[in-house]
Design goal:
About 55% of the residues lie in helices and about 10% in strands. It has a six-stranded parallel β-sheet with strand order 5-7-8-9-6-10, with helices on both faces. A hairpin with a 3-residue loop joins strand 1 and strand 2. By secondary structure, it is α/β, with parallel strands linked by helices. The longest helix has 23 residues. Helix 1 crosses helix 3, helix 11 crosses helix 13 and helix 12 packs parallel to helix 14. It folds into four domains: about 90 residues, GMP Synthetase, Chain A, domain 3; about 170 residues, Rossmann fold (3-Layer(aba) Sandwich); about 70 residues, Helicase, Ruva Protein, domain 3 (Orthogonal Bundle), CATH 1.10.8; about 90 residues, Chromosomal Replication Initiator Protein Dnaa, Chain: A (Orthogonal Bundle).
């Protein structure tokens, strides 16, 4: 039977993605066997459970095809634990966890679908995926810091949260904190105001094992927060804790960033994620359709992948659009339907420019265009300018440097304007109403 297992591994290597095969199947070895029994050893209990859940049926089917008969497969934990049998009965008796989001020890909830299993790997993100999986599974004990770099909508948040899911599953006693840099800053300010700074410091320096910090470019210009974060990172690195950052900018490109913090952000492995190629886009759409239980023809998926090339969110928008329109109209999902959806998405993206946004903002606030791009610091001009910069970032693909230049401002000032509106969205009903108005206006295409 040990020869059979070697043949099974060769077949599985062709049927399972390379990263999954290396992670779960390759470490397994044939420990002992009988005429109708094959005992396989797994590195640990977590690996054994994952193989049972994800690949048990496939292994059993493959062995049956080779041996021409049924065979009992027993998975044993290499270090400790009772063996488990791969069989349909065992699968039926396995209880499933409730369909709920995972709550880490601190910060925001982890999205239940942002796991490694749900991440589609391609040439554009393969290195980032492997690096993230290595950090999460402790494959390389020397790698304690990872910096995920990409523009918005490319999957860095997915990988960051997948690390959190994996750690919480494989190492339940680990304390995982998932948050944005803005969350960290707000929490620190609150600690100052309520005279509980020591408790805040202790929480991160002594009570955190894995820190997942998103959007670190939002720390630009926040000197006190940068200093506190740099000291916190020193404590975490010295204690051998894991830290994962994500950003749309390299540490050296973040304006008004303290040199000490910049060196800490660049301490670990910097892994960039690029836009997916055509084949990867098709696989992403297939995965999304499968997860959402949508029956979408292959030719429609390939058409969407060929037309929607900007980012993953645009792909999701196209898939949601065709399924929703088919459901509402009661018609089939075909190329004509897909073309009508893609036309609206492409037209909306192309029509909204920085000049269009300037015109709409000036009309709404009653200010002249020369004043909007002037050096004036009057509040009646500053707020419209901030809104226009925020909308330019949201609805165009222009980089921050170009957006700032369009308003006669530096990159850092443009970033400050975006942060000002985002902060206002959390606490100002007026700003919420204004952003909602511009969102409806721009997305309707009626301007």
């Amino acid at each position: 039977m040990s020869d059979v297992w070697n043949q099974v591994k060769s077949i599985l290597q062709q049927r399972i993605p390379p990263h999954s095969f290396r992670m779960w199947i390759e470490p397994m070895a044939s420990e002992q066997d009988g005429q109708d029994t094959l005992v396989l050893s797994c590195p640990n209990g977590f690996s054994r459970r994952r193989v049972l859940e994800q690949y048990g049926a496939l292994i059993e089917k493959t062995i049956r095809g080779l041996a021409g008969k049924g065979c009992q497969i027993v998975l044993r934990n290499g270090s400790a634990g009772a063996p488990e049998t791969v069989s349909p009965v065992a699968d039926e008796r396995q209880l499933k966890l409730p369909d709920v989001q995972v709550q880490p020890h601190g910060g925001r909830l982890l999205r239940k679908d942002f796991t490694f299993d749900q991440f589609v790997v391609g040439d554009s993100n393969g290195f980032a995926y492997s690096a993230s999986l290595a950090v999460a599974s402790r494959k390389n004990s020397q790698q304690s810091c990872l910096y995920l770099l990409s523009k918005t909508g490319m999957g860095k948040s997915h990988l960051s949260q997948a690390i959190g899911h994996h750690v919480l599953t494989a190492f339940p006693s680990e304390r995982v904190y998932y948050m944005t840099a803005e969350d960290f800053s707000h929490e620190m300010v609150s600690a100052y105001r309520h005279d509980c700074l020591e408790a805040f410091k202790g929480k991160y320096r002594n009570g955190c094992d894995v820190l997942l910090l998103e959007d670190v470019h939002c720390l630009s210009g926040k000197d006190r927060t940068q200093q506190e974060l740099a000291m916190t990172l020193d404590f975490l690195f010295e204690a051998g804790k894991k830290v994962i950052f994500s950003s749309s900018c390299l540490p050296t490109e973040i304006p008004k960033l303290d040199d000490k913090l910049c060196s800490r952000l660049a301490y670990g492995l910097v892994s960039s994620i690029e836009a997916p190629d055509f084949n990867t886009r098709v696989r992403i759409l297939k995965k999304k359709a499968q997860v959402n239980r949508c029956d979408v023809p292959e030719e429609v998926l390939r058409y969407l992948a060929s037309e929607l090339t900007e980012d993953i969110r645009q792909l999701e928008s196209g898939l949601i659009g065709v399924t929703a329109k088919s459901s509402l109209l009661g018609g089939p999902i075909d190329l004509d339907l897909a073309a009508s959806v893609v036309k609206n998405i492409a037209r909306r993206r192309k029509a909204i420019t920085i000049d269009v946004i300037k015109k709409q903002v000036c009309k709404f606030y009653g200010v002249a265009l020369p004043d909007l791009i002037s050096r004036s610091r009057k509040q009646s001009i500053v707020r419209p300018r901030q809104m226009a910069i925020y909308l330019s970032r949201k609805y165009t693909d222009a980089p921050l440097q170009l957006i700032g230049k369009s308003f006669n401002r530096y990159h850092a000032t443009a970033l400050h304007s975006i942060n000002a509106i985002e902060s206002g969205l959390k606490k100002s009903p007026d700003i919420q109403e204004q952003v909602a108005f511009f969102t409806r206006k721009l997305e309707s295409g009626k301007f």
